[in-house]
Structures are given as C-alpha cells and as structure tokens.
C-alpha cells in the first residue's frame, strides 16, 4: 500500500529516534553495570529493549506503506557520566520523542492515516511512562542525594558457598 511521503518521513524520523535511544539506553546500562549499579542497569537495559520493540513497529509500518526504513541515520547519543547526567540525557531524548510523536499524530490524522497515528499513540504512551520514571528518579536523587540514591540500586550477591 502506498503511503503518504510526509507520514513515511515522520515514521522514519521516529525510527531514527528509537535507534538512537536503543544505543543510548544500552550504553548507559553497560556503564551502570560496570559501576555496580546492577538493579538500575537491568531496568535501563529493559528500556533499551522497549525502544527496540518500537523500532520494530515503525519498521513494519514503513515497509507496509512501501517506504524504506532508514537505519543509516542516528541522532546524537548523549552519554552521562553520573547517574544524574544519565537520567537527564535520557529524559531529553524522551521529551524530544514525545514532542515528535504528538506532531506526527496530528499530521497522520490530517492525512487520514489512522493506523500510523495509532502506532504513534501507542509509542507515545510508552514514552510518557519512561519520562515519568525518569522524573521520579531525578526527584529521588534531589531529595536523597546521589550517594544514598545509588545505595538503593546496588544489588548485593551472596558469596558462593560451594567455592573453597
């Protein structure tokens, strides 16, 4: 089915954002794990996989509309060094996505492409949950301070009693 070029461009632009978010979240997850923030690393890794599912939805929709998904382009990956910097960087990418998704829904509905608008709305709901989580974590850091906050995201492992 032939899709509207402007709709396909919006879908591709959001695909670029999702591919960027996959990389950013995955790198933050690896950095968090390296620093010993294992519970946080697991959560962030799952966020990366959520973004991958979004990329898959967008890819399928672009292909259905006879478009070509653009996997060659990425936006700037923002890498934080501290947990606060990571959350702020992730929040920026989510805020940009929410704005783009809202604009896209309007364009898609005006062009009569309700299915693409529904895809964007489903992704929008997930991104709003992501940003709510990030806002909550940033508020906790502000109230507790980074050291105390970080003590809540470290997972202690028990020593292996079978080892000599």
UniProtKB/TrEMBL annotation:
InterPro entries recorded: Bacterioferritin, Ferritin-like, Ferritin-like_diiron, Ferritin-like_SF, Ferritin_DPS_dom
Residues annotated as binding Fe cation 2: 51, 94, 127, 130
Any Gene Ontology CC annotation: cytosol
Binding-site residues for Fe cation 1, renumbered to this chain: 18, 51, 54, 127
EC number, as in UniProt: 1.16.3.1
GO-annotated molecular function: ferric iron binding; ferroxidase activity; heme binding
Tagged with keyword Magnesium: no
Key words, A-Z: Heme, Iron, Iron storage, Metal-binding
Domain (Ferritin-like diiron): residue spans on this chain: 1-145
PANTHER family referenced in this protein's UniProt entry, alphabetically: BACTERIOFERRITIN (PTHR30295)
NCBIfam families according to UniProt: bfr (TIGR00754)
Name of protein: Bacterioferritin
Gene that specifies this protein: bfr
């Amino acid at each position: 089915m032939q899709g509207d070029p402007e709709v396909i461009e919006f879908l591709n632009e959001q695909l670029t954002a999702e591919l960027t978010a996959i990389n950013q979240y995955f790198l933050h997850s690896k950095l968090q794990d390296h620093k010993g923030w294992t519970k946080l690393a697991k959560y962030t890794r799952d966020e990366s996989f959520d973004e991958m599912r979004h990329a898959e939805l967008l890819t399928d929709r672009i292909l259905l509309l006879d478009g070509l998904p653009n996997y060659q382009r990425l936006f700037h990956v923002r890498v934080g060094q501290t947990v606060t910097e990571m959350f702020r960087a992730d929040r920026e990418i989510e805020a940009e996505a929410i704005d783009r998704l809202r604009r896209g829904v309007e364009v898609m509905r005006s062009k009569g492409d309700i299915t693409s608008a529904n895809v964007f709305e489903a992704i929008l709901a997930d991104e709003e949950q992501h940003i709510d989580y990030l806002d909550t974590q940033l508020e906790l850091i502000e109230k507790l301070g980074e050291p105390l906050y970080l003590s809540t995201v470290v997972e202690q492992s028990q020593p292996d009693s079978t080892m000599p």
